[in-house]
Write a structure and sequence with these properties.
alpha/beta, D-Maltodextrin-Binding Protein, domain 2, 10-stranded mixed sheet, 44% helix, 19% strand
Amino acid sequence: MKKSLVTLIAMSAALAAGSALAFPDKAVTIVVPFSAGGPTDKVARDLAVALGAQLKQTVVVENVGGAGGTLGATKVAKAAPDGYTLLLYHIGMATSASLYRNLPFKATEDFEYLGMINEVPMTLIGRPTLPASNYAELVKWLEANKGKVNLANAGLGAASHLCGLLFQQSVKIDMTTVPYKGTAPAMTDLLGGQVDLMCDQTTNTVPQIAGGKVKAFAVTSMQPLTAPALANLPTLDSQGLKGFNVAIWHGLYAPKGTPAAVTGKLNEALRAALKDADFIKKQEALGAVVVTDGRLAPAEHKKFVAAEIDKWGVAIKAAGQYAD
């Protein structure tokens, strides 16, 4: 009996090892925890093409939006740990720990880290009819309209919410926060003049800035950006908000317990995909910077996320903005 049990365990281990070695033998799904058409979705769809070429398998994108990205993240955390269901999440991987009191997953415990993808600066933009043409004029307008300014965001925990939160704290001017269910409706109302300002990722704002559909006031990086539509935009740091530096990063994750042989293959494929010339070109055109440093390694990316959890926890708790 004991010998049969040992044999069974050995056979199961052999089958698992064989399955890992054969990975992937079917399509891989990347879950994006936001609606289609948003900035994170754009990154995922570009990556899916480059990653699929490396894995020699189809990589599909599934949008599972809701609750600031936590619904999609929870789905992946509870998925089979076989490498066929992955999560592409932005900075919400770190901020959700402070934003949500009853979060159904733990960012540093319930996932296998595969590596960081890119960093995306933000842009401070306004409605086309806003009576300010540069950042200095914007500050004067904000001071003259305290209590009347509407600041849009794509929902609690969204990149635009976080950037807007820090901007309000930095300029020491309270604004009326207007949350939307996604970036698209927030941008629509900004274009239509229903709200005044939004701070959002360059991956979402560059087309609007290039088309002259919004007023652009500054970028949130420490250095000016080289993308054509952003080349003449000053940094908030250079405009008086010293040290203001907000970049929304994206990372790739698998469910906890995914075999090391599988995560190793995924990390190797991710590293190669991030060197794909077409992927790099598409990211650069949107102002995003593809990661090439140590954060490509799972352990280093996890260490980075842990530090981000601490950093954003301070800002979120100071603002007192939570979800149930």
